[in-house]
From TrEMBL:
CDD domains: Trp-synth_B
Metabolic or biological pathway: Amino-acid biosynthesis; L-tryptophan biosynthesis; L-tryptophan from chorismate: step 5/5
Function according to Swiss-Prot or TrEMBL: The beta subunit is responsible for the synthesis of L-tryptophan from indole and L-serine.
InterPro entries associated with the record: Trp_synth_b_CS, Trp_synth_beta, Trp_synth_beta/beta-like, TrpB-like_PALP, TrpB-like_PALP_sf
Cofactors demanded by this protein: pyridoxal 5'-phosphate
PANTHER family: TRYPTOPHAN SYNTHASE, TRYPTOPHAN SYNTHASE-RELATED
Annotated region (Disordered), positions in chain: 1-21
Domain Tryptophan synthase beta chain-like PALP: 63-386
Protein name (Swiss-Prot/TrEMBL): Tryptophan synthase beta chain
Family: Belongs to the TrpB family.
Top enzyme category: lyase
Length: 401
């Protein structure tokens, strides 16, 4: 059975760094809590009881392993396209993988509550689900603009018993929600754990979330080899903070012949500042929200406004492991525009009967473009990070069907 394990390339040094990226640049009040979390996290990696409980919940609650599906109609463009179906997980995306891990860890550390930010509400719903399952309180911070936009997820969180904290500061979206959640956490570090939503933030978060997501790649590598033989030529995933991409990439890092491709949102175009979120492509090095990475910034270093049709990709920074993989040339980062994303959303819906999340549609968009450049012997493995039910009304408002 596939087992979580992190490749040394994406495991930090003792200061929480991956090359020049990462680190723990924190509020002094946070330092102690981060240290406690780091200890807690490292103790569970070798704890057979913890792992057994996590495996039980992966199989019986999340529904793992998620299958790999050969998308034969999409593949008539050229290369063969395979999908890792994280959209079939309970709650409809990959986020439940790290939420189950984080809440199990919080419980093991004796915490009563988990606190987090959410953008589109996907992380909030997954965390509220895991907290309901394991009997912990859950406090979710969400920008007022996102609350208005993402009504079904707001309702889900309330039904699951989470306490929702609206954040009206600044643009009222994800970045402000992160600041607000951290502030609330600092006031209650004894009883609570901050459960971040991606491979971002100060150490140990990037390592911890990557560890919990690594199940995706370990499963996929085993499944692909036993069903189709060998490894894919390219492994492709969308990148917001980078957790679904890193979860898949991790297992293939030592397979030098496998190309790893992250796909970022080019929004309305890379030439339109403030109207895309192509962090790896156009960001500059610096520190944002407790860690170093490439991020989209103004002259004075403040984070730029960002945009993507997919709210889950709408963040000016990106995980430090991805920045490092880019620096050493092990992964490459491409982009897809809002328009290409909508085309891919419809193509997968109509040609394969799978409605993908707009986030995941970015990876599909690149795969379609790439498949057409390659012959039918090449094989592309795409992480279908989530399902698109949450996006259907928005899409219908954008295109006339
Ligand atoms: C949140 C989300 C993403 C983006 O987050 P990563 O950390 O980059 O994976 C991608 N796909 C779906 C379906 C999401 O909900």
């Amino acid at each position: 059975m596939a087992q979580e394990k992190l490749n040394s390339l994406v495991t930090p040094d003792s200061n929480g760094n991956f090359g020049q990226h990462g680190g723990k640049i924190g509020h002094p009040a946070l330092a102690k809590a981060l240290e406690e979390l780091e200890k807690g996290f490292h103790s569970i990696i070798g704890d057979t009881e913890f792992i057994a409980e996590m495996k039980r919940l992966q199989a019986t609650f999340i529904g793992r392993p998620s299958p790999i599906y050969h998308a034969r109609t999409l593949s008539t463009r050229g290369a063969q396209i395979f999908l890792k179906r994280e959209d079939l997980n309970h709650t409809g995306a990959h986020k439940i993988n790290h939420c189950i891990g984080e809440v199990l860890l919080a419980k093991k550390m004796g915490k009563k509550k988990v606190i987090a930010e959410t953008g589109a509400g996907q992380h909030g719903v997954a965390l509220a689900t895991a907290a309901a399952l394991l009997g912990l309180e859950c406090e979710i911070h969400m920008g007022v603009v996102d609350i208005a936009k993402e009504h079904p997820n707001v309702s889900r969180m309330k039904i699951l018993g989470a306490k929702l904290v609206p954040v009206s500061a600044g643009a009222g979206t994800l970045k402000e929600a992160v600041d607000s959640a951290f502030e609330s956490y600092i006031g209650q570090v004894e009883d609570s754990m901050f459960a971040i939503g991606s491979v971002v933030g100060p150490a140990p978060y990037p390592e911890m979330v990557a560890y919990f997501q690594s199940i995706v790649g370990h499963e996929a590598r085993e499944q692909f080899d036993s069903m189709y033989g060998g490894q894919p030529d390219e492994v492709i995933a969308c990148v917001g903070g980078g957790s679904n991409a890193l979860g898949l990439f991790n297992a293939f890092l030592d397979d030098q012949h496998v190309e790893l491709v992250g796909v970022e949102p080019a929004g309305e175009g890379l030439d339109k500042p403030g109207r895309h979120a192509a962090t790896m492509t156009l960001g500059k090095f610096g520190n944002i929200q407790g860690f170093n990475c490439y991020y989209l910034q103004e002259e004075d270093g403040t984070p730029s406004a960002v945009h993507s049709i997919a709210s889950g990709l709408d963040y000016p920074g990106v995980g430090p492991q991805h920045c490092y993989l880019k620096d050493i040339g092990r992964a490459r980062y491409e982009t897809a525009t809002d328009e290409e994303c909508l085309d891919a959303f419809l193509a997968l819906s109509r040609e394969e009967g799978i409605i993908p999340a707009l986030e995941s549609s970015h990876a599909v968009a690149y795969a379609l473009r790439r498949a057409a450049q390659l012959d039918a012997s090449k094989r592309l493995l795409v992480n279908l990070s989530g399902r698109g039910d949450k996006d259907i009304d928005y899409v219908l408002g954008k295109i006339n069907l």
